[in-house]
Design a protein that fits this description.
Distance between the termini: 17 Å
Number of domains: 1
Strand content: 25-35%
Shape: flat
CATH superfamily: Dimeric alpha+beta barrel
CATH topology: Alpha-Beta Plaits
Low-confidence stretches: none
CATH class: Alpha Beta
Largest sheet: 4 strands, antiparallel
Structural class: alpha+beta
Oligomer: single chain
Strand order of the largest sheet: 2-5-1-6
Number of strands: 6
Number of helices: 3
Radius of gyration: 15 Å
């Protein structure tokens, strides 16, 4: 089964989200993630982490990334539709303006 890279997009950076959370809200958010991961079970390869301090690197140097990517996970599923089905009840989708991208991790020929 292929792996799928899951990117969590949000209009507010992960750092800002964590900075403004009170302990009870943070605990409730983590419980929602734990409940989701329990439902997905062995489909999770890497639960991932929030992301911050992004940089865009190009030939001319590095600049601050203006991406809305706030975190990632890696899932294992039979196909992309199965990966999407695992994400239908994800707690990240409760945040206004949030979305999730799913990308198949393709095998590189000869590697």
């Amino acid at each position: 089964m292929p792996n799928y890279v899951v990117l969590y997009n949000a209009p507010v950076s992960a750092a800002a989200q964590m900075e403004d959370n009170d302990p009870d809200m943070a605990a409730a958010a983590m419980q929602a993630w734990n409940d989701w991961s329990a439902r997905v079970g062995s489909g999770i390869v890497d639960l991932g982490t929030p992301l911050g301090n992004g940089r865009r690197v190009a030939e001319g140097g590095a600049t601050e990334a203006n991406s809305e990517v706030a975190g990632y996970s890696i899932l294992k599923a039979a196909d992309v539709d199965s990966a999407v089905a695992l994400l239908q009840s994800h707690p990240h989708l409760q945040m206004p303006g949030a979305s999730i991208e799913v990308h198949e991790a393709l095998e590189v020929p000869g590697m």
